[in-house]
Amino acid sequence: MDSSITSWGRYPKAVHVSSACPEWNSQLIDDLQRRDTILPYGLGRSYGDVCLNDGASLIRMHRYAHILLFDRTTGVLRAESGLSIAEMLSVTVPAGWFTPVTPGTKFVTLGGAVANDVHGKNHHKVGTFGRHVRAFELLRSDGTRHVCSLTQNSELFRATIGGMGLTGIITWVELQLTPIVSRMIEEQSIKARSLQEVVELTEAADTDWDYTVSWVDVMASGDSLGKGILLRGRFATTPDGTLQKPHPKPLLSIPVDGPQWLLSNPTIRVFNTVWYNKQIGREHQRMVDIEPFFYPLDAIGNWNRLYGKRGMLQYQCVVPMHDGVATMKSIIRELQRGSVASFLAVVKKFGNHESPGLMSFPQPGLTLTLDMPNSGRRLFNALDRCDEIVASVGGRVYAAKDARIRGDRFISMYQNYNDFVKFIDPRCSSSFWRRIHST
Amino acid sequence: MQSKSIAIIGATSAIAHGVAKLYATSNSRFALVARNAQNLEVVASDLRSRGASHVSTLLADLKDVTRHDEIVRYAMADLGRVDIVILAHGLLKDQTEIDHDAEATLDIFEVNATSMISLAHRFGCALEKQGSGSLVGLSSVAGERGRRAIYAYGAAKSAVTEFLSGMRGRYLPLGINVLTVKPGPVDTPMTAGRTLPLMASVDTVAKDIVKAIEQRKHVLYTPGIWRVIMAMMRAIPEALFQKMKI
Prior knowledge:
The structure holds 2 protein chains of 2 kinds.
Chain A: E1 18-20, H1 25-33, E2 38-41, E3 57-60, E4 67-71, E5 76-80, H2 85-92, E6 97-98, H3 110-115, H4 123-126, E7 133-139, E8 145-148, H5 154-160, E9 169-176, E10 178-179, E11 184-192, H6 195-205, E12 211-216, E13 228-235, E14 252-253, H7 265-278, E15 283-289, H8 290-294, E16 300-301, E17 312-319, H9 324-337, E18 345-350, E19 365-373, H10 377-392, E20 396-397, H11 407-413, H12 417-421, H13 431-436
Parallel strand pairs in A: 1-3, 2-3, 14-16
Antiparallel strand pairs in A: 4-5, 5-9, 6-10, 7-8, 7-9, 11-13, 11-15, 12-13, 12-18, 17-19, 17-20, 18-19
Chain B: E1 5-9, H1 14-24, E2 29-34, H2 37-49, E3 54-59, H3 68-79, E4 84-87, H4 95-98, H5 102-130, E5 133-138, H6 151-171, E6 176-183, H7 202-214, E7 219-222, H8 225-235, H9 238-244
Parallel strand pairs in B: 1-2, 1-4, 2-3, 4-5, 5-6, 6-7
Helix pairs in contact in B: 1-2, 1-7, 3-5, 5-6
């Protein structure tokens, strides 16, 4: 019995019967067949319970992390699924190759990136992570191994991308990386006075900039509701010798849980105001390294502990572009009515590149992401009302961030649900999956 | 870091692989020896992918000392010159599991002591002929004092430590360094499922080892705190030590 393994939000908690930690291929099948129900677990960076398996077992994949092939001329990399993006980049960046898609942390495994079909600031240009997976191998609990790609075992391929680890164990992943000549990114930040302006600036930037994202203040109200800062970036295109520079180390780590008042309504409000006003001019330009541009929070180890013992919730939804700003505003107002405290939320426009994944989250439209201290019933009620709004316009909520959505509502958001369930491995399950089938 | 030619015996061990990864990025060359073909091939691919300019492999059960001459010949011939020899193979079993099993106890001694000493001796002679190089042996803080929880393994590591210490005396004047590595508990598959104090990560230990090799150190405690802890543990009088039940 082990209660030490959590998700990044540290809510809900789970007690696992056992956890295996395989290092070699030959151990995987034993670990899979020796236990009742299992779930592969990477680095635990999803927020809610999609990576947990309360009352059952985990197969922890982080030691199963060898690189099997890296072609420096074509940028094709094949690695065992426990390899982290961080370690992958430490090898590929000096050779001039970057991950095609990255979430906001580099501490995710390749298997986790596939299973949650992660997306990043360049979704409008290149779509999700799953679109750059050339192939992977899936080990099922009956002992069979399937090499999957768009042309081979394509149904399993589509079910496993965004499949939340429920279709079996991904043993290796083969990726097409993106060429870069420098670690430096040309970054511009532009202040927007309202959500409408955030979206207008985003649409103007999306043609010429590979990476766009906006940070908005969801605690501001009235005309300035959703005011924020658009960040746009693109890799430098002239070689400058920075590729060989070693990665900087994390600056500090949070050793203990924060007290409850630390990240509460008033402190967050102050932070948001200071943050918005620290940029004095409307536009600001600089050259930044990969680390601060893509992974600002990775510089603070265990930052999730700041949210204290009760943990935090993250909420991410996407709503269609049509009336998108109005929908998003009603979601933000709903959160404000519930006195929800949130640090700068993230707004991004998803593009039209469709993912092969059956249960993939992104769809064309506007996406909103918020971190919130777990303040209990009131927050949960407000989020329920947000789900209702999202569902009514044909939007979706992201499983990798969820800890509380009602099951029938989640299922109704995913049109391929019925196709997907056919591919679930009989020995795989998760806290998330059981939860959405019991509520 | 400069490119090096490195022979690794017990190449699939997590600590050895951690060290090899750090050398691979500077285009080092490797001759790897281990028992399991599939795992060894995975380690070889990994090092190639990370930038190793040459990786060759040899399969051998290292307990079988009759193959040790062949292993040394293979590594020396394959690499041409050998800058670093790393002896990393090891076997750890729960002491309680072998308390009533003399065969298993001797097995622990064969793998961790006899085989390690046999290879250290033979590689020592080969490096002497070459006139340069570093020999790195993975021992353990467990070899510093016989403890009830781990005495079979500890006794074997103690033998290794003392043997390497003597070798160092013999080889230093010849320009060959012998490094004894004494890790505390490291978070590896070998220690999986055990709760041990001050568990270190493979990355930390690997970095320490590379630094010690490059600085031609004699004895490395990693993490460094174990130098202090073991000094204290050695200083406790036997009667008191037995009462403390550690």
